[in-house]
Amino acid sequence: MNPRGTSSSPSLLAADAGATVRRLSRCVGDGELDSPAEMYRVLGALRLLADDLTHFLPALQDRLEDRLLSGQVVRHSGGEPLEATWDAVGEVGRALAHARTVALLMTKELENSQVALRDLATP
Description:
The chain contains three helices and no strands. The longest helix has 41 residues, at 81-121. It has helices at 10-29, 36-69, 81-121.
């Protein structure tokens, strides 16, 4: 069990989130999304998920940088270890910043979809 009292590691929680989205995709593909009102609620939940990602991704980078500064992250291949480690952490940071931008755009577009669907979803 981890220090926070849960039996799931962060990687297992992330895998569970992915599995949930895949199950949702199957439900939609199987025709279980049968009303505009339900679609409106699904879009709202997905918008919140995308918004949560925009806050979570920088925290990942912060954690990696903290580990780097404390000496707990070391790259073991590819040139001089210290320089290669800093370069790799910088590359991760750039990729996470881009992913955050994409998540922000996704959040906005899901909100736009929800607004456009609003009149169809109300009885």
